[in-house]
# Entry
Amino acid sequence: MTPSNALSSTENVLATADGFFAIADALHQRLNSSATRVLFAAASTDLYGMLIEEYGLRARAAILRNNAKQHVVDNCKLSQERLHQCLEATAHQVLTIPGAAQLRSVVASVNTLCVGISPGKGHVVDFLIQELGNDLNRS
# Structure
């Protein structure tokens, strides 16, 4: 069986939306931990900003889920499996990223990827997936 290209079907978009929700859940768990409160203690506005980012990610993931047919991308070069692995790794890593700046960077990459999913924008999605992977490797 040949692997499908990322986001090339309604089912792939739905699975990707679920991946974004898993990242939002991990971020929520992380932001509600006492260790994270200490990490962001110097700037409570940073913690509030991260909560807003979580809300934004959930809203964008809901748009993908509720209108999956309109977000199918037929020209991604990366596979759906690679996208799934990247989102899964992100959800796991969000729980352990040591610094506030690194966490903000990864969350910004995730949100940018989620927003970038649009028909005909496969080259953009491929680039953003690659950049998210790079962010994870730096964390």
User: Anything to note?
Assistant: Residues 10-138 form one domain. DSSP finds six helices and no strands in the chain.
